[in-house]
Amino acid sequence: MTPNHFITKFRSFNRYYSNLLSGFDRHLYGDPFSLVEDRVVTTIKTAGVINPNDISEKLNLNKSQLSKILTKMEKQDIIQRSINPKDKRSILISLTTLGEQLQDKQVRTVQSGLNDFVSPYSPQQLGRMSKSMQIIKNTLTNEHNVKIETTGLSDIGYIADLHARVYTARHYHAIFQYYVLESLAKYTQSELGGVTFTATVDGTRAGTVSLVESTDGTWQVRWFVVDPAYQGHGLGKQLITTLVDYAKLHDISQMYLWTVSELEAARSIYARNGFHRAETKPNHEWKDNTIMEERWDYTPGTGRQYNS
C-alpha cells in the first residue's frame, strides 16, 4: 500500500472514529465530566500526583485548554495543587476525595454505557475488533509482541497457505505448490520425528520453519518462510536461531536444507547460523527461468557472513 492510499484510508477512518467519540461524549460523558475532562482526571488518578506539563504531553492537550480545565476542577474541589518538594518552582496535581469519588462514578457510567454499546456484537466480532485495535496501537508505537512458539500438525494448513501466497507472488509455477503439499502430506503420514516453530506478531501468525527427521538419521530444515507483511521484525533470524538452539539442546548435529539461490536474505541467515552451501543443481520446473537449487549442510560451532 502506498502512503497516499494509506492516508486516504486513515482520514476516512479518522472521520468515522471522531464521530463515534462525539457520540460517546454526548451520551456517556458530561455528568460529572466531559470526555476531555475524563481523560484529564483519569490521567491524574493513574499517576497519583502529576505535573500539569506531563498531563499536557500525555494527552496532547493545549496548555491553555488544560489550564482552564484544572482551574474549573480546583474551584469544584475535584483537584488540589501542591508544591513539588523536589522543585519548589513546580506544581503537582492530585485528586481530592471528592475527585476520587466522581472519577469512580464516571467509570461506572461509562462502563455501563459501553456494555450497552457492544451488546449487539458477537464474541467473535469483539475479538476481531480487540485484536485490530491492539495491532494499530503496537504498530504506531513500534512495540510489537513477537513470539516464536512450538507448534505441530495443526499448522500444516497454514504452512501450505503461506507458501502458496509468498511463492505465487514470486511467480513460481503451480508445480511448486504441488511439491510443498506433497512434502507436507508425506510428513503428516510418516512416523518420523519433527518440530515446527511458528512466529507470531501481535497474535497473528507471520512465519514458520520445521525440522524434520529423515530416514537416514539426519534432519532436514523445511518450510522456512516469513510473511512479507511482517518483514522488518527479524522473524527469519529468530526462527532459524530457535531451530538451531533446539537442535543443540537435543544433540542434533546432522542437519541440512534445500533452498534456491535467489533467496539471498535466507541464505545469509543460514550462513550466520552454521550452515554452508554443499551442493547446487539447476531447476527448470518451478519458474519460467532456470533457478539454482542449493543444499546447505550444518556444521556445529560455525557461523559466518555469506558472500554469494
Q: In brief, what are we looking at here?
A:
Helices cover about 50% and strands about 25% of the residues. By secondary structure, the chain is α+β, with helices and mostly antiparallel strands. InterPro entries: Acyl_CoA_acyltransferase (IPR016181), GNAT_dom (IPR000182), HTH_MarR-typ (IPR000835), NAT_camello-type (IPR050769), WH-like_DNA-bd_sf (IPR036388), WH_DNA-bd_sf (IPR036390).
Care to describe what's here?
The protein is α+β, with helices and mostly antiparallel strands. It folds into two domains: 3-120, Orthogonal Bundle (Arc Repressor Mutant, subunit A); 146-298, 3-Layer(aba) Sandwich (Aminopeptidase). Helices cover 50% and strands 23% of the residues. The strands form two sheets. It has a seven-stranded mixed sheet, with helices on both faces. Strands 1-2 form a two-stranded antiparallel sheet. Strand 8 and strand 9 (291-298) form a beta hairpin. The protein starts with a helix and ends in a 10-residue tail after the last strand.
